Amino acid sequence: MTPPPATANPAGDDSPALVSLYAKTKKIHPRAVSGWFAGWRWALVWATQLVFYGLPWLQWNDRQAVLFDLASRRFYIFGLVLYPQDFIYLTGILIVSAYALFLFTAVAGRLWCGYACPQTVYTEIFLWVERHFEGDRNKRLKLEAGGWTFNRFWRTGGKQVVWIASGLWTGITFVGYFTPVRTLLPAIAALALGPWEWFWVLFYGFATYGNAGYMREQVCKYMCPYARFQSAMFDKDTLIISYDKARGDPRGTRSRKIDARSQGLGDCIDCGLCVEVCPTGIDIRNGLQYECIGCAACIDVCNGVMDKMKYPRGLVRYVTQHGLDQQLPPADMWRRVARPRVIVYTVILLVIVGALAASVALRSPFRVDVVRDRASLARIVDDGLVENLYRLQVMNATEQPQRYRVSVQGLKDLQLVGKDEVQVAPAEARWVTLAVRVTPDVAQQAGPGAHPIMFTIQRLGDAPAAAAEKSTFVVPR
Question: pTM to 2 decimals?
Answer without folding.
Answer: 0.83
